[in-house]
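Lab notes, practical 5.
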Amino acid sequence: MDFVGAKAAFFCGASVLTCLRDDHPGLRWPGLWDLPGGGREGAEGPEDCLLRELEEEFGLALPADRLIWRREFSSIMDATKISVFFGGYLTEDEIGAIRFGDEGQGWELMPVTAFLDHDRAVPEMRRRVGIVWAEWGREAVRLA
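Output from the prediction step:
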């Protein structure tokens, strides 16, 4: 599989973990709400990529079995490449343990409905969250 990165919707109840992107010149989607994840490093697999990014961005080290839902999409950076999108869940204790890194302006545990309707969220991430929420959302609420 030739994938370039991974993102995830991590749910805690009926909310999703989000981060506010930096607002630097030249950055894609500056100042918009986004989700954990990022680009592949070396030969890492999709799960390793996503979990590394989660730890770098939020200080959370989760096992791969917390990634319950998975789908491949065309990358929003290069439509000829694949991006892997996951759905997972976090507990309230894990939310309390977040230590936000130096990428982005901040984070929020945002109600899913607010993220889906947010005019300052990365549009493709809104679409993907809508898909995973429709297919797996009730289960995510139960797991948290």
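Observations recorded by the TA: The CA atoms of residues 9 and 43 lie 23 Å apart. The helical segments are 46-58, 92-96, 112-117, 123-143.
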